[in-house]
Design brief:
heterodimer; A: 313 residues; alpha/beta; Rossmann fold; Alpha-Beta Plaits; 2 domains; four-stranded antiparallel sheet; elongated; B: mainly alpha; binds adenosine-5'-diphosphate; binds magnesium ion
């Protein structure tokens, strides 16, 4: 059974389509990244999955339960960190967890043990009696993630858990997510607009834009299928007159950028460096450096979104 | 169900405890006014058996306390953006609602009893100083009225308060409306007090209780995840 399945899931708000025809499956045990720019429909999707809002059409199943008709069964088995951390600022860290552990019907001794276990894992046990309002944003996010895990849910939903954090706290929170995911053996549904985060943290990725799913797969897989182009950078000692023309005339060269003695080429496939090297040597230049650039997910992301927009118009 | 309701109430009580200082400052005036100043200044008429005004003021106090507490339990949860997270848990909408109303009633009623105790103490002291015989200042009927009607008025205030808060988005409007919510209670208490007997007390309890439960029902129906999550 899949952790999450959706079939043509669609949500409109007064005629505005926030999510359109989303069909996807998510395997158990993955950190699934739902990646898209602001307004793409990530939060809407999460709200639909947890059964907080009804879909306009289509269906979602979480752990085999229908998100609309069996929303209570879904909510019993998941944990969620929304856009707002949802912690009670005036309560202590401990009492925040105590409250949610009580909600989830842990017994008194289970509560004590579980809260200590989680707070120790994220290094906040010593601060358990402090009011949350005194804490940094990063610490609050870590606490909120612990809160989602209290009742050993099978899936946790995290809505942009690192947005608004400074880079150091972002890294800290990401590391905790990876660590907790491993030790708690939980499926993670992670909304993010941060490519770097998606690439570092997620095993599986779906890219969404304007309510439409663009692609789904392993980050490397997305990179290799979407990025059929090769990117080659060469640094040479001189630039003979006709070199530029010859390079541009090559049938497999899509574009060429020259910056002093530095050439940047985009080729049709990634395996053209030998041919480029041969041509350079034929022109009598000394090649100081020749390497293939790995394409960042960011470029692919932008490229996919551009293609999608062209497609739409 | 009871476990779940109590969970929510427990959290509200913990929050109130953590905010004790701000509670003391905001209720300090009320406690002083209703517990000391009012009984001291109207002691003579109360000892002469003219207790209507004093009882009415208590009725009004319950509305005042109830509406303030409703704002801090319901509206602040929305303002602090903690409600959304609560809605992702296994708790049902009605459970969250009832847990909060129970907290409003418990906290407000506790303050009511505190003020009532102070009020009685002040009356006794002033009575002694002015040479009235040592006895309880209210009749049993009046005292039961003082103890029981505020409980129902707290239910009325909290449910109507939530109902209004789900319609208004700014807190000023909320406070304003809350003040006017007390008016019908005030008028009703006034007429009951004009001819206070055990029968009128029971009838008014039944009618007021019924109305409050009705409003509670409407309010619960409006307190609905799918609506709340988008607010
Ligand atoms: N309650 C709402 N009413 C109307 N439109 C909404 C509402 N919530 C979201 N939207 C719209 O739906 C789209 C997707 O929003 P959202 O799911 O919040 O995106 P994301 O989380 O990816 O930033 C946006 O265009 C947004 O304006
Ligand atoms: Mg969002």
């Amino acid at each position: 059974m899949y952790a999450i399945e959706t079939f043509a899931l669609t949500k409109q708000y007064d005629g505005v389509t926030a999510l359109s025809d989303l069909t996807l499956t998510i395997k158990r045990g993955t950190i699934f990244g739902f990646l898209g720019p602001n307004g793409a429909g990530k939060t809407t999707t999460m709200n639909l999955l947890i059964g907080l809002i009804p879909p306009t059409s289509g269906q979602a199943r979480v752990l085999g339960f229908d998100s609309t008709r069996e929303a209570d069964k879904v909510r019993e088995r998941i944990g969620a960190l929304l856009e707002d951390h949802g912690l009670y600022e005036y309560l202590s860290a401990y009492d925040n967890l105590e409250f949610f552990a009580r909600i989830n019907k842990l017994t008194k001794s289970e509560r004590a043990a579980r809260i200590q276990e989680l707070l120790e894992k994220v290094g906040l046990w010593d601060r358990r009696d402090q009011q949350v309002k005194e804490w940094s944003k990063g610490m609050k996010q870590k606490l909120a993630i612990c809160r989602t895990l209290l009742h050993r849910p099978q899936i946790i939903f995290l809505d942009e858990p690192t947005s608004g954090l400074d880079p150091a706290s972002q890294r800290m929170v990401r590391e905790e997510i990876l660590k907790l995911k491993a030790s708690e053996n939980v499926t993670v549904f992670l909304n993010t607009h941060n490519l770097d985060e998606a690439e570092r943290v997620c095993d599986e990725l779906a890219i969404i834009n304007k309510g439409r799913l663009i692609t789904q797969g392993h980050p490397e897989e997305i990179k290799s299928t979407a990025a059929s182009d090769g990117h080659i950078v060469a640094v040479i000692d001189a630039l003979p007159q006709d070199l530029e023309r010859h390079l541009r005339d090559l049938p497999f060269v899509k574009s060429l950028e020259i910056n002093g003695h530095r050439l940047r080429l985009v080729t049709d496939t990634p395996s053209r460096s030998a041919e480029i090297n041969r041509l350079l040597v034929q022109h009598g230049v000394r090649v100081e450096e020749l390497r293939r650039e790995s394409v960042s997910l960011e470029e692919i992301f932008l490229q996919l979104i551009e293609e999608e927009q062209e497609h739409a118009s | 169900m009871l476990h779940d309701i109590w969970c929510v109430t427990w959290k509200e009580l913990m929050l109130a405890r953590r905010n004790l200082k701000s509670y003391l400052t905001s209720y300090g005036l009320v406690v002083g006014l209703w517990g000391v100043f009012l009984p001291a200044s109207s002691a003579d008429s109360i000892w002469r058996g003219e207790a209507t005004i004093s009882i009415l003021l208590f009725a009004y106090l319950s509305v005042l306390l109830g509406s303030g507490q409703t704002i801090s339990t319901f509206v602040s949860e929305r303002m602090q953006k903690t409600l959304g997270t609560l809605l992702t848990t296994r708790l049902s909408d009605a459970t969250i609602y009832l847990g909060k109303v129970l907290a409003v009633i418990l906290i407000s009623y506790a303050v009511m009893l505190l003020v009532l105790g102070l009020h009685l103490g002040t009356l006794m002291v002033v009575g002694q100083l002015n040479g009235y015989p040592l006895r309880f200042p209210y009749s049993l009927l009046q005292f039961v009225f003082l103890l029981v009607l505020p409980l129902i008025s707290l239910l009325y205030t909290s449910s109507l308060g939530v109902y209004i808060s789900l319609k208004s988005t700014n807190i000023r409007g909320q406070h304003f409306l809350n003040l006017f919510m007390g008016l019908p209670v005030f008028v009703m208490f006034y007429f009951v007090l004009q001819s206070l007997t055990w029968e009128t007390l029971l009838v008014s309890l039944a009618v007021f209780g019924f109305i409050s439960l009705l409003i509670t029902r409407f309010s619960i129906a409006r307190f609905n995840r799918q609506r709340l999550i988008l607010m």
